Amino acid sequence: AQKVTQAQTEISVVEKEDVTLDCVYETRDTTYYLFWYKQPPSGELVFLIRRNSFDEQNEISGRYSWNFQKSTSSFNFTITASQVVDSAVYFCALSQGGKLIFGQGTELSVKP
Amino acid sequence: ETGVTQTPRHLVMGMTNKKSLKCEQHLGHNAMYWYKQSAKKPLELMFVYSLEERVENNSVPSRFSPECPNSSHLFLHLHTLQPEDSALYLCASSQAVQGATGANVLTFGAGSRLTVL
Q1: What is the mean pLDDT of residues A38-47?
Q2: Between chains, do A47 and B107 touch, taking CB under 8 Å as contact?
Q3: Of B14, B24, B63, B106, which sees the most CB atoms within 10 A?
Q4: A97 to chain B, minimum CA–CA distance in Å?
Q5: For residue B34, is pLDDT > 70?
Q6: Exposed, middle or buried by CB within 10 Å (0-12, 13-18, 19+), for A31?
Q7: Half-sphere CA count of A9, side-chain side, radius 13 A
Q8: CA atoms within 13 A on the CB side of B114
Q9: Mean pLDDT lowest for which of A39-48, B6-15, B51-60?
Q10: Å between B8 CA and nearest CA of chain A
């Protein structure tokens, strides 16, 4: 069965701290895609990144970086020098057959 | 308008009411989705329409009835709901599902917050 686990329900940090959001997935497929979405208080989920299972290169986009490790079935997300605007719920998701399976989300609160 | 628009943003209804949620996308996508987001639970996929045909129905109770009249519009008709149906209902769109391991990026609307009394 496919499953995505985000063990951290809530994280609270102070502005400028680095924070890592964990994501562990389960799948029997060899070809799959992993995603991260951000859900700010306004409600809509915003796409952050998509990674296919054959590309284990880490990715950096500004203050955001992602660490994909197939050996541990993890796709962790790090925010460097966090800002108040980063406060949101972050979802990791696994794509199977074109439909997304979401984790339960991690609520990040960045305090000034 | 751009992106995915959902109306109404907030809805309060009694258990005997009939109401509808509307979703419209202006992205030229040909697949649309309904997700339910309840507190402390993962997003649950309810329905998927691809090229205006329903391709996914995840054991959703019949009191939820989707309608997709064209590739730009998606409705969720609600009748005789229960209090446990109170949730945020999110609409999303993407290009049509391709292959067994699709890589579709979904674009979401802001959701319709439903409260059933």
Answers
A1: 92
A2: yes
A3: B106
A4: 4
A5: yes
A6: middle
A7: 4
A8: 33
A9: B51-60
A10: 13
